[in-house]
Amino acid sequence: MNAVALAVVKASLRVCAGLAFALGLTACFASEEELVGYWGADRPVSEGVYAHTPTHPDGREWDRPTWTGEITLEQRRYVSDAPNFPHQGARFHELFDDVYIVQSPREDGVGYGLAFVYEEGRVVSYHQPSCSDVADAVLETADVSRDAEGYCPIQDLDQLEAIMRGVYEAANGQLRVDGVYRRVAE
């Protein structure tokens, strides 16, 4: 295999691994229907060209982005025409100052995570909470329970806000960052 072909294969593997990581972790807190609708969606992220870089479990960012493309806003959803956008169709809902619930549609329902918005929407880091990592007391306070497969089904927006606030507060705001988007061009 020549050097160019090897570089292409390695780049493809990085993209696939990054997408699997980013999308695989969205399965923990979920609902069958979207809980953040058009009118409840906020628009904290500015439109432009972004680079997405996942992070290692130890918190270090990967050595290069796994996705780059233009992100725009359509019907209060963040979308991109660039292939393999990890969070296609995501909506943001403000939890409190610069901390947002992110709703991401999936084939089997809707997943939820947290995002932290910096620099007037030009930098976004995100955390995909794992239901198995959340203390029982936090789940009980939000009236959320784990199902047989380890998922935490969410029934309504109030419950979603309560569990995400509980996850944030239980960690004193010091949550693992699973990936970062940085605007690289207008």
In short:
With 186 residues, this protein is of the alpha+beta class.
Q: Tally the helices.
A: 3
Percent in strands:
25-35%
SSE order: HEEEEEEEEHEHE
Uncertain runs = 3-27
* Average pLDDT number: 86
Secondary structural class: alpha+beta
Please tell me how large the radius of gyration is.
17 Å
Number of strands: 10
Span between termini = 38 Å
Protein described:
The chain has helices at residues 3-24, 136-141, 157-170; strands at 29-31, 48-54, 67-74, 77-79, 91-96, 99-106, 109-118, 123-127, 152-153, 179-185. The chain is 23% helix and 32% strand. The protein has one domain (3-185). The longest helix is centred in the first third of the chain and has 22 residues, at 3-24. The chain contains three helices and ten strands, in the order H-E-E-E-E-E-E-E-E-H-E-H-E. With 186 residues, it is of the alpha+beta class. Strands 1, 2, 3, 4, 5, 6, 7, 8, 9 and 10 form a ten-stranded mixed beta sheet that branches. The model is unreliable at 3-27 (pLDDT under 50).
Write the SSE topology:
Blueprint: H1 3-24, E1 29-31, E2 48-54, E3 67-74, E4 77-79, E5 91-96, E6 99-106, E7 109-118, E8 123-127, H2 136-141, E9 152-153, H3 157-170, E10 179-185
Parallel strand pairs: 1-9
Antiparallel strand pairs: 1-7, 2-3, 2-10, 3-4, 5-6, 6-7, 7-8, 8-10
Describe this protein with a few key phrases:
disordered N terminus; alpha+beta; 23% helix; 32% strand; 186 residues
